[in-house]
Design goal:
Elements (H helix, E strand, L loop, with lengths): L7 H13 L2 H7 L4 H15 L4 E4 L2 E4 L1 H28 L4 E7 L1 H18 L3 E7 L2 H9 L5 E5 L8 E14 L21 E4 L4 H13 L5 E5 L2 H11 L3 E4 H11 L2 E4 L6 E8 L7 H18 L1
Parallel strand pairs: 3-4, 3-5, 7-8
Antiparallel strand pairs: 1-2, 5-11, 6-9, 6-10, 6-11
Helix pairs in contact: 1-2, 1-3, 1-4, 2-3, 8-9
């Protein structure tokens, strides 16, 4: 047997012939002349060294060897079809796995909708997302533990390639009957006489508040530290303390818990979220597609 003489066109023709029970019907389905189809079947039998079809006046039926050949042909053709589909997906940048790290602000405010839209457009892409603070995200990118990362501006990013993503506005979260709850806007210094509930000191938001306290020569009266934005809101209601959060992240909790959100007028209270990558040129097609999608989503969010 010479396997080199067995080609995919002939295997596909053989499958059609067996299924339709006729060489002429199989030839029509394969868009071949009956004589050419008959020769291909004969050449396949010669290559395999055995008869594959019983030929009779009403058509053909597979021999025992033909039935075995049919099973193998179906498996080969199926694997070739899968290979072609997979490689086509890769070529168009719509298949693969993307390791995405993001901070809490990005996840809570923007990523759910942005990633949902991306997944609908690219259903073959898998995204492994991990929530971390901004400093950890930059380190993960530098150490190739992540393909893309979303973190706060002012986070030292070294030699990473960075792109704008979204902006957020910080607000004071005040519980009912707090002395600041009636204010229409505040600067940060006006809040420092009151007790705070905040995030851990490793987060970009906590570090930003600490930097501003040092600049003002004041101390933050941080009474409780929690891990999540929702926990800050719940604690504010329970303790009567205030907190500072991104407006969009706090808004759903404010409505359900009757919290007041008061805009901070300090310039630094308008933050930018940044997309980072170690080397854009080395990103997979799927990661480049996601990067482009997130950039476009950020631009549309500005309009």
């Amino acid at each position: 047997m010479n396997p080199a003489r067995i080609d995919l066109v002939t295997l596909s023709l053989f499958v059609s012939v067996v299924r339709l029970g006729s060489i002429s019907a199989g030839a029509r389905q394969a868009h071949l002349a009956v004589g050419a189809a008959s020769k291909r079947i004969a050449d396949l039998e010669a290559a395999l060294g055995t008869a594959l079809l019983y030929r009779h006046a009403s058509g053909v039926q597979p021999t025992e060897a033909g039935q075995a050949c049919l099973r193998h042909a179906l498996r080969v053709l199926g694997e070739v079809e899968q290979m072609a589909g997979a490689l086509s997906d890769y070529a168009h940048g719509v298949k693969g796995t993307v390791r995405l790290y993001a901070n809490t602000s990005a996840i809570t405010q923007f990523l759910a909708d942005d990633l949902a839209a991306f997944m609908r457009a690219h259903p073959a892409v898998q995204i492994h997302m991990k929530e971390e603070n901004s400093t950890t995200i930059v380190r993960a990118l530098a150490e190739n533990q992540a393909d893309l990362g979303i973190f706060a501006d002012r986070t030292p990013s070294g030699e990473l390639a960075v792109y704008p993503y979204r902006g957020d506005q910080l607000v004071v979260v005040a519980p009912p009957r707090h002395p600041l709850a009636q204010a229409r806007q505040l600067n940060f210094a006006q809040t420092l006489d009151y007790d705070y509930v905040g995030l851990s000191q490793s987060t970009s938001l906590a570090m930003r508040l600490q930097e501003e306290c040092e600049r003002l020569g004041r101390e933050l009266k941080l009474r409780i530290q929690v891990r999540g934005f929702d926990s800050i809101c719940r604690m504010a209601v329970s303790t009567g303390f205030i907190g500072i959060l991104p407006r969009l992240a706090a808004a759903p909790h404010a409505q359900s818990m009757q919290l007041t959100l008061i805009p901070l007028v300090d310039g630094w209270a308008r933050r930018e979220l940044i997309i980072g990558a170690r080397e854009t040129e080395s990103l997979s097609s799927a990661a480049r597609q996601l990067l482009s999608h997130l950039q476009a989503a950020g631009q549309s969010g500005l309009q």
